[in-house]
Amino acid sequence: PCALQVKNKAPAEVQITAEQLLREAKERELELLPPPPQQKITDVEELNDYKLRKRKTFEDNIRKNRTVISNWIKYAQWEESLKEIQRARSIYERALDVDYRNVTLWLKYAEMEMKNRQVNHARNIWDRAITTLPRVNQFWYKYTYMEEMLGNVAGSRQVFERWMEWQPEEQAWHSYINFELRYKEVDRARTIYERYILFTLLVIVHPDVKNWIKYARFEEKHSYFAHARKVYERAVEFFGEEHMDEHLYVAFAKFEENQKEFERVRVIYKYALDRIPKQDAQNLFKNYTIFEKKFGDRRGIEDIIVSKRRFQYEEEVKANPHNYDAWFDYLRLVESDTDAETVREVYERAIANVPPIQEKRHWKRYIYLWINYALYEELEAKASKRTRQVYQACIELLPHKKFTFAKIWLLYAQFEIRQKNLPLARRALGTSIGKCPKNKLFKGYIELELQLREFDRCRKLYEKFLEFAPENCTSWIKFAELETILGDIDRARAIYELAIGQPRLDMPEVLWKSYIDFEIEQEEYEKTRNLYRRLLQRTQHVKVWISFAQFELSAGREESLSRCRQIYEEANKAMRNCEEKEERVMLLESWRNFEEEFGTDTTKERIDKLMPEKIKKRRKLQAEDGSDAGWEEYYDYIFPEDAANQPNLKLLAMAKLWKKQQQESEAAEMDPDKDIDESQS
């Protein structure tokens, strides 16, 4: 034939790729093919021919790949469907020779025998299976189930016993136990539990809490409560304190709760809570709380809350041992609820966390741990010896060359005084002053000796104190007051003289005021005036002048008014050159108040003329970088005495007067009727 000739060789508009061809072929595989025609066999020859062809097909498939077990199973099942049991058995045996480890093959083989009621054959197959593959639990389950269904309880028990010798998993033991319980063999079930627990103890195959709990619940279910309690106790003893589990104690407590043994329940919970780590005891806390709410009193509920709070504080201090606030809260909790040994243990743990840096700001919170510890030992535990040891240990710990805490020394000394041990108290305070002198230590020591009325010791201490801190005005004043109380006026005056002669003082105004008040109390007015004059040589402060004037007024003599007025005049003259005009205004106001109370009309008129005029002014402001920041309004004072000496101020006053006259003339021109009325009048 002649070849076809393609006339149009141009590419088609729609191109088909190889991928599309493969996809289309795959999709068409899923299309339903029409079923093959049914073949009816009418005689024996056709049947034998069909069997021959089918067997040949199966044998060919097996010959191609002997390891594909599904081909063997299909072949055997086909023979089984034809009731050719002997042939099917032969096929299974041939398959087992190929792969005896295949679990499905054994199962199918045994199921075939059981379906065809070949019980002994089935037993034989199961025996071979469990002997060959003893770790396949499915064989054991199927075997025992078959024996039980046949009513062969003894045979099933025998199979279970053979299984238990292999120490199987937990579920196998429970299946054996449930088997015995189905036939009401409680004693046998208990024996199995004991064997199981014995394996747990000796072989440590299943050291799990839930196995013990199941055993105990089994005993409880069958009303053997004493046996159940013994099981729980054995479990607690077995796991000990190293492997404690909260689930065991919760189950034990619930068992005792069901038996109405509430005290036992409380003991179990407390025992477990004291030994199990707190982070692993959340469920235990929860169940204990529920129990106390149901059967406990207020005290029991409080104990649970305290335990929970203790756990929280333990976590906080474990996360940050230097969190002293957490330690304070923790200690406050244990002090309110536990015994002395526990409190001491927590205190020792707390004070062991010494601040890593020797700076006082890091020690301020830490030192109160020692103080609280000592106070607890003294007031709560009533242990004076331990209190002394706490104070001494704290004092040895402090780095006195860098810093110290006067509070510790003073508290220690006060403790020794309460113990009527005065020499030790003085020795402690003397040591503190020698090692690390501080104002607070001197004051505390002096106060102690004052209470004991040891005035000579007080004088010596004040001398040491003033050698250490000569600028401390309070110390000079207290020393002088002490001498005044003792009646030694000359000594007190000498102390004041030494004090005001110091080159550097922290509060000189307080010292001078105290000295002046001292002389006024002694009614030494001339000496007081001399003191004021000496003070005015050092400072011209307005308050000194006012105080001086008030002193002269209160002197109570005839010339007191004239002296007071004279001082005001001196002060006014002295403060004319003062830059602080507010102070001068303060002086004049004080002078005016004095004249209003004691002065005449002439003196009042004079002081009124001296009072300044308050005016508003503006001044230019500058920012920090020197730029212009605008204008600011402020009030200034113009004193008449200063205005008379300054021609500019006179010129300003005349300008103001001229401006006022101009305003009056303009007002008159705008209102001529008023001028006519004025001229007529």
From TrEMBL:
Family, per entry = Belongs to the crooked-neck family.
* Ranges of compositional bias, category Acidic residues: 666-681
According to the lineage, what is the superkingdom?
Eukaryota
Q: Per the record's keyword annotation, is Phosphoprotein included, yes or no? A: yes
Q: Which residues form the Pre-mRNA-splicing factor Syf1/CRNKL1-like C-terminal HAT-repeats domain?
A: 70-356
Q: What does this protein do?
A: Involved in pre-mRNA splicing process. As a component of the minor spliceosome, involved in the splicing of U12-type introns in pre-mRNAs.
Protein name from the UniProt record? Crooked neck-like protein 1
Keywords in alphabetical order, please.
Coiled coil, mRNA processing, mRNA splicing, Nucleus, Phosphoprotein, Repeat, Spliceosome
User: Where is this protein primarily located?
Assistant: nucleus
Regions annotated as coiled coil = 518-584
**SUPFAM superfamilies, per the entry:** TPR-like
Which InterPro entries does the UniProt record give?
A: HAT, HAT_Syf1_CNRKL1_C, Syf1-like, TPR-like_helical_dom_sf
Query: SMART domains given for it?
Result: HAT (SM00386)
Localization, UniProt: Nucleus speckle
Species assigned in the record = Pluvianellus socialis
A single GO BP term for this record reads: spliceosomal complex assembly
GO terms under cellular component: nuclear speck; post-mRNA release spliceosomal complex; precatalytic spliceosome; Prp19 complex; U2-type catalytic step 2 spliceosome
Q: Name one Pfam family in it.
A: HAT_Syf1_CNRKL1_C
Cite the residue spans of the region called Disordered: 661-681
